[in-house]
Amino acid sequence: MLYVCTGSVCRSPIAERLTRMELRRRLGPGAEQIAVRSAGTWGHVGAPMEAHAATVLTEYGADPAGFSGRELLDEHVIEADLVLTATRDHRAQVISMGHAAGLRTFTLKEFTRLVRAIDPATLPEGGVIDRARALVRAAAALRGWLLAPSAEADEVHDPYGAPVTVFRHIGAEIHTALDPVVTALTGVPAPAHS
User: Coiled coil where (predicted)?
Assistant: First the structure.
């Protein structure tokens, strides 16, 4: 699973680390079966996560430590069974790289919308990898039928350089979009907060 934004220091690291946290909450040690990475179309290679992004992750209980920005490379796209991008422009850039990426590349919010329309009973029981691959195929099949209410609905805007309040808003958008995706991937709903 690969998240793509522009600089690989704000949106995609937030999505990567929140996804890892949610997978661990639902699958425990089994979360390691799903590799979650991030990269940027103009990635700041080796850069730490933006400080406000790290703050937002910490507020969610996710771990921002040890992050290092990456530039999006062909091998990242080839290795990923699912690519989720921050914007439609990022999606177009990934698809333009080839590697049959069109069938497994979505914006995060687009994928969330499609996943919500998929009956979980139609997904295979058992292995999380088989389930995830079936989910991606089902979402790709729905793409032309279930359109966004507006082009803007599929975008997660770049908070780079903005105050922490904007990062919190973007973090909430990403977290909200991730919940149905992780639930569908794992077959395990989010545990109730105590």
Answer: none
Other CB atoms closer than 10 Å to residue 182's CB: what's the count?
22
How far apart (Å, rounded) are the C-alpha atoms in residues 19 and 36? 7
Tell me which residue has tokens 């209980």.
61
Label residues 108-134 b or e (16+ Cβ within 10 Å = b): bbbbbbbbeebeeeebeeeebeebbbe
Contact assessment for residue 18 and residue 178, using Cβ atoms and an 8 Å cutoff: yes
pLDDT at 96: 97
- The encoded tokens of residue 122 equal 């139609």
Conformation bin of residue 125: beta by default, left when phi > 0, alpha when psi is -120 to 50: beta
pLDDT in tens, 37-62: 999 999 899 999 999 999 999 999 99
Structure-block tokens of residue 38 = 């991030």
Q: What is the pTM of this model?
A: 0.95
Residues with catalytic function: 5, 11, 119
The residues with which 4 forms a beta bridge, in sequence order, are 39, 85
* Count of beta carbons in the 10 Å neighbourhood of residue 190: 14
DSSP state of 36: -
